[in-house]
Amino acid sequence: AVWAERHLLSFCNRPKLTETYTEDTWLKLRDAVGAIQNSTSIKYNLEELYQAVENLCSYKVSPMLYKQLRQVCEDHVQAQIHQFREYPSLLSFLKRMNRCWQDHCRQTIMIRSIFLFLDRTYVLQNSLLPSIWDTGLELFRTHIVSDSMVQSRAVEGILEQIERERNGETVDRSLLRSLLGMLSDLQVYKESFEQRFLVETERLYAAEGQRLMLERDVPEYLHHVARRLDEENDRIISYLDQSTQKPLISTVEKQLLGEHMTAILQKGLCTLLDENRVTELTLLYQLFSKVKGGLPVLLQFWRDYIKNFGGEIVGSPEKDKDMVQELLDFKDKMDNVAHRCFQRNETFINAMKEAFESFINKRPNKPAELIAKYVDSKLRAGNKEATEEELERILDKIMIIFRFIHGKDVFEAFYKKDLAKRLLVGKSASVDAEKSMLSKLKHECGAAFTSKLEGMFKDMELSKDIMIQFKQYMQNQSEPSNIELTVNILTMGYWPTYTPMEVHLPAEMVKLQEVFKMFYLGKHSGRKLQWQPTLGHAVLKAEFKEGKKELQVSLFQTLVLLMFNEGEEFTLEEIQTATGIEDGELRRTLQSLACGKARVLNKNPRGKDVEDGDRFNFNNDFKHKLFRIKINQIQMKETVEEQVSTTERVFQDRQYQIDAAVVRIMKMRKTLSHNLLVSELYNQLKFPVKPGDLKKRIESLIDRDYMERDKESPNQYHYVA
């Protein structure tokens, strides 16, 4: 209401339009504009000037007023160009340019406030006319910034300041922010500045990248690149236009990283991984993930590194003793890198698995054998390295390595042999740990893989029950024995194959065997017992000068020691005749008794090896701090013959499996080409096999009339029913 009243009074008091009034009013307005442009005081009241503009617009002289105002502003801006002709220093030129721009903006805002009515009526109604502010920008752009000399020097000056800052000098960032804001407001930022800026950036970082790749090591270079990227991002925040961010960062990454990806990885990845430089590896991954094609290149080098490093562990026979532990340590290390440095990237984790599977199978069978032996060393009694929780963690890690192995049947054969020794000689550290390992194998390979191993445990449980019954049986005998006999009844199909060995047992032992045989066959008619002395063991009571001792010994050691109840001294040949022990086994047995830590026998002549003609006598002066002394560790050691026979047995089993698979496939298909048969076999067989081996088995089956070649096409096979 108040505004309407004032507006009505203003309208009533409005002077009549005459040519003289219009000219006088314009002169007054022009003087005010001139005062603003020259930064001098305005003679008139601003409200009075605003009212004068409103009066002129109300009397339809807006076109003339807009035209005259534009002309006055244009004349003033044109006059400013002369001040930029002589400035020897680029920095002083930039400061002058900035002052001129700031003054122009302030003046344009002031002029617009006086001519606001004109801006909001006439100009707004004519869409083709720029506003007073836009007119001010257009005039400054046309007459100042578009001048080739002014624009060239301004851009050169800005680029010089940025280069100085990149070289470590301090520059006036507010000056750069203001000037670049001016170019952006005038809509010449991209064409006049950004293109040249990106070209200069590319030139600078291309040279810097080539120079520093030669001068610095990779960790130092990576930190430098990260620092450069942070600096450029800071420039964008501080004074560059936001639209420059993407092309600028892309240029820096391309020149410092993209052009040197292969060189960086060739020069430094192996060192970073060897030294487990987690910080630098994390930085490497972060930087390479920003560059197009960076991660695929890193992935390939990572895969190659694992294959090469792992190949050295597996491919060096001299490292066999520590192979499995080194593989576990290497896997832990690579897992740590994949999770901490490579952000759990699935592609990198899968590549690591593929690389492990590749190198671990480059040397067939041996890794599987050594993994089985490593598990044996951990599950064997006397292993004080780990608590139950730590042992469980070790077994979990072992299973990860186990998954990579193709020849799992080799592992099974050696694991079964070692498990048998642990169970029969009583050297298993923990039944829970044994069953835990069995459960892991069953989960990994299926019930068929562990059925025989589970059978071994069942046999041991059943044997305990049988021995309870046998003890009761012995108590009812008229002539109880003074020897306590323990027998393990083993199902032949479950346990490793042991070569039968006939040895000469003392009469007391033979009698006990017969008693047990009568007892057992009386309960289980139709069964056949075959005694296996190889893994038998006993506790002997011995008397030395120092006093009585108990010796925990193998059955073969028992037979040798019992001879010294009958005589003072025996030769190797005499002992062999008396005991019937096989020559190689006897030499190992005598070596353990006369050349080991616990020397209960003396050997003449002295020496580490047992030779023909060596003589042995009882060591009455034997001393030991313990009452019960274990001398039967010899039973747990694997002989070369055992290793060879286990490996040969695996290969024999493989031949049977190939034969069975061929017959099974041919029986189902009736007729099949050679290539399709081989393809089917590769799908069914769970162990690595060469095409030549398959061909030999096929030929063998043809010879045995299980199948025949097609008479017209030799590569075609027919099943023979």
From TrEMBL:
<dbReference type="InterPro" id="IPR016158">
    <property type="entry name" value="Cullin_homology"/>
</dbReference>
<feature type="domain" description="Cullin family profile">
    <location>
        <begin position="366"/>
        <end position="594"/>
    </location>
</feature>
<dbReference type="GO" id="GO:0051246">
    <property type="term" value="P:regulation of protein metabolic process"/>
</dbReference>
<keyword id="KW-0227">DNA damage</keyword>
<keyword id="KW-1017">Isopeptide bond</keyword>
<dbReference type="InterPro" id="IPR059120">
    <property type="entry name" value="Cullin-like_AB"/>
</dbReference>
<dbReference type="GO" id="GO:0031464">
    <property type="term" value="C:Cul4A-RING E3 ubiquitin ligase complex"/>
</dbReference>
<protein>
    <recommendedName>
        <fullName>Cullin-4A</fullName>
    </recommendedName>
</protein>
<comment type="similarity">
    <text>Belongs to the cullin family.</text>
</comment>
<dbReference type="GO" id="GO:0031625">
    <property type="term" value="F:ubiquitin protein ligase binding"/>
</dbReference>
<dbReference type="Pfam" id="PF00888">
    <property type="entry name" value="Cullin"/>
</dbReference>
<dbReference type="InterPro" id="IPR036390">
    <property type="entry name" value="WH_DNA-bd_sf"/>
</dbReference>
<dbReference type="InterPro" id="IPR036317">
    <property type="entry name" value="Cullin_homology_sf"/>
</dbReference>
<dbReference type="GO" id="GO:0034644">
    <property type="term" value="P:cellular response to UV"/>
</dbReference>
<dbReference type="Pfam" id="PF10557">
    <property type="entry name" value="Cullin_Nedd8"/>
</dbReference>
<dbReference type="GO" id="GO:0043161">
    <property type="term" value="P:proteasome-mediated ubiquitin-dependent protein catabolic process"/>
</dbReference>
<dbReference type="InterPro" id="IPR016157">
    <property type="entry name" value="Cullin_CS"/>
</dbReference>
<dbReference type="InterPro" id="IPR001373">
    <property type="entry name" value="Cullin_N"/>
</dbReference>
<dbReference type="GO" id="GO:0048511">
    <property type="term" value="P:rhythmic process"/>
</dbReference>
<dbReference type="InterPro" id="IPR016159">
    <property type="entry name" value="Cullin_repeat-like_dom_sf"/>
</dbReference>
<dbReference type="GO" id="GO:0006281">
    <property type="term" value="P:DNA repair"/>
</dbReference>
<keyword id="KW-0234">DNA repair</keyword>
<dbReference type="InterPro" id="IPR036388">
    <property type="entry name" value="WH-like_DNA-bd_sf"/>
</dbReference>
<dbReference type="InterPro" id="IPR045093">
    <property type="entry name" value="Cullin"/>
</dbReference>
<keyword id="KW-0833">Ubl conjugation pathway</keyword>
<comment type="pathway">
    <text>Protein modification; protein ubiquitination.</text>
</comment>
<keyword id="KW-0945">Host-virus interaction</keyword>
<keyword id="KW-0832">Ubl conjugation</keyword>
<dbReference type="InterPro" id="IPR019559">
    <property type="entry name" value="Cullin_neddylation_domain"/>
</dbReference>
<dbReference type="GO" id="GO:0042254">
    <property type="term" value="P:ribosome biogenesis"/>
</dbReference>
<keyword id="KW-0090">Biological rhythms</keyword>
<dbReference type="Pfam" id="PF26557">
    <property type="entry name" value="Cullin_AB"/>
</dbReference>
<keyword id="KW-0597">Phosphoprotein</keyword>
